[in-house]
Automatic annotation (TrEMBL):
Post-translational modification: Cleaved by prepilin peptidase.
Annotated ranges, domain Type II secretion system protein GspI C-terminal: 57-137
Quaternary structure and partners: Type II secretion is composed of four main components: the outer membrane complex, the inner membrane complex, the cytoplasmic secretion ATPase and the periplasm-spanning pseudopilus.
Stored InterPro entries: N_methyl_site, Pilin-like, T2SS_GspI_C, T2SS_protein-GspI
The name this protein goes by in its record: Type II secretion system protein I
Species assigned in the record: Panacagrimonas perspica
Annotated GO CC locations: plasma membrane; type II protein secretion system complex
Superkingdom, natural source: Bacteria
Length: 139
């Protein structure tokens, strides 16, 4: 092989090696960015759902406290409450909650059943209650 051919072969080999060492191609970079964008969208979506669930669980917990407080107030009364339905409002955690209560007689004449439902101020009857508690009171 002549000297010229050897030099040409070396320089073309050098160019191939240089091109590979030069970095990523545009297509490789675009694919990597697309993969990262899809992964980030999934992470952000999961974080948004987690934040939404945390807010809902906080509301549900506070509503349950309101229902339990109302039941405890009834248990602390010296006279048993009248049977029937009643409703009212209670403030807790900076929110004014609405509660509905039904008191009915049971088969045991010494017990009353109390059903309490608690809703946030923005909830409608169709949406259902955030918290429901059933308890029994001795007469």
């Amino acid at each position: 092989m002549s000297l010229r051919k050897r030099r040409a072969a070396r320089s073309s080999l050098w160019l191939v090696v240089r091109r590979r060492d030069a970095g990523f191609t545009l297509i490789e970079v675009l694919v990597a960015v697309a993969v990262l964008a899809i992964a980030m969208a999934a992470v952000i979506g999961a974080m948004a759902r987690q934040a939404s669930n945390a807010g809902y669980l906080k509301q549900k917990t506070v509503a349950m406290w309101v229902a339990h407080n109302r039941l405890a107030e009834l248990q602390l009364q010296t006279e048993p409450p009248d049977t029937g339905r009643s409703d009212g409002k209670a403030e807790m955690s900076g929110i004014e909650w609405r509660w509905d209560m039904a008191i009915v007689k049971t088969q045991d004449s010494r017990l009353l059943r109390v059903d309490i439902e608690v809703r946030s101020p923005t909830q409608t009857e169709k949406e259902g209650a955030l918290a429901q508690v059933t308890g029994f009171l001795a007469q």
